[in-house]
Amino acid sequence: MLGVEEYGDLVGRIYEAAAIPELWPNALDGLANVAGCIGGLLFVNSGQQTHWVASPVLQSGFQRLLDGGWMDRNDRLSGMLAKGGAGFIRDQDLFDHDNISQVPMYRDFLIPEGLGWGAGTFVTTVPGDSVVLTVEKRHVDGPLEPATIRMLDALRPHIARAGILSAVLRLQKAHVRLDALDRAGAPAALVGSGGRVMATNRLFEAIGRQVVARAHGRLAFRDDAANQALSNALARIGSDNTDDVRSVVLPCADGEPACVLHIIPIRRQAMDVFSRSEALIIATHEGRALDISSSVLCELYDFTRAEAAVAQELLQGRSIAEIAALRHRSMETVRSQVKVVLAKTGCRSQLDFVRRLAPLAR
């Protein structure tokens, strides 16, 4: 049984991880430890993608599970979902103790990995994502006890609330981004991979006469070609393709000037399992591009002033050596700042970064 202090510490770790995704492995380790398990796993399925994070000891094993295609034939997960309920479900609750070793998922994967006894639960968040949490015990150590499940059940509501908190924090950050673009004179909206509008700024609402509907919260325009181009671009925002920046022409209508919609993917942070694939749609009118100032870059990507300055130099096409000379910094310092810029924007190379932001820069 957890003491008050130990329980409070574990709950605190769960909420900290919701705000700082890099802390999830630590929180999962803490949860597994009090359950007498070797590690924990958390994954979120949005219907289009599965994001996951695990205790270090389980990371390579779960990757093997994915690579082996076990998510499509996961007897354990399907059994858990079918059983439903509002608590943690043990392996022995799903399969007979004597026959569990003959179930393919256990026989061919879990037991060879040294696992096979554990417990899991799932919750559904407001956006409709399925959040699954499991704690894994060594097969040789035997099943989890009922007292352990009661302890895990007491922690389950906090895990669900952590997902809600994460979604709220992401939406707050999205509004900061959109406000920054509004001040820069750019109509902008944040959309999900299915085209569902999550937030817009004031200027984006001004192009409303070219928007015919937002059926089920999705963006739609009067021009069929623009709709198809937008759909194609949004369908790819979950991929890591360096060519995934797309521009869609929106023709003039009812006196509104033609504009170009730039679809820029927002990459999820490492270990941010609650982050959905999202994109910024930024509208620019003919002959007028967005002035990406240092302050706008800072608010869009959480850059420091120094990182924003380096980012602007990259957009001007300057090399690391040229930036170092202009800013009177060492090559090592600038190279380090460039790495941070790429990491914060989810880009894999300087070329990737320039291709994503150059269409918006003057």
Task: Describe the fold and architecture.
The chain is of the alpha+beta class. Helix content is 45%, strand content 18%. The strands form 3 sheets. It has a 5-stranded antiparallel β-sheet with strand order 2-1-5-4-3, with helices on both faces. Helix 10 crosses helix 11 (305-315) and helix 12 (320-327) packs across helix 13. It is globular and about 70 Å long. The mean pLDDT is 80.
Count every helix, treating DSSP H or I runs of 4 or more residues as helices.
14
User: What is the number of beta strands?
Assistant: 12
> How many domains comprise the coordinates?
3
The fraction of residues assigned to DSSP E strands is 15-25%
So, CATH architecture of the largest domain?
A: 2-Layer Sandwich
Fourth-level CATH superfamily of the largest domain: Transcription factor LuxR-like, autoinducer-binding domain
Helix content: 40-55%
Strand order of the largest sheet: 2-1-5-4-3
What is CATH's topology name of the largest domain? Beta-Lactamase
Q: Biggest sheet, in brief?
A: 5 strands, antiparallel
The residue ranges in which pLDDT falls below 50 over 5 or more consecutive positions are none
- What is the CATH top level name of the largest domain? Alpha Beta
Please state the overall shape, judged from the principal axes of the Cα atoms. Answer: globular
Quick recap of the structure?
It is built from 14 helices and twelve strands. It is an alpha+beta fold.
Per-chain topology:
Layout (H helix, E strand, L loop, with lengths): L3 H16 L4 H11 L4 E7 L4 E5 L1 H12 L7 H9 L5 E2 H4 L9 H7 L6 E8 L5 E8 L8 H38 L4 E5 L4 E4 L1 H4 L5 E3 L6 E2 L2 H11 L11 E5 L8 E8 L11 E8 L8 H8 L3 H11 L4 H8 L3 H15 L4 H8 L5
Antiparallel strand pairs: 1-2, 1-5, 3-4, 4-5, 6-7, 6-12, 8-9, 10-11, 11-12
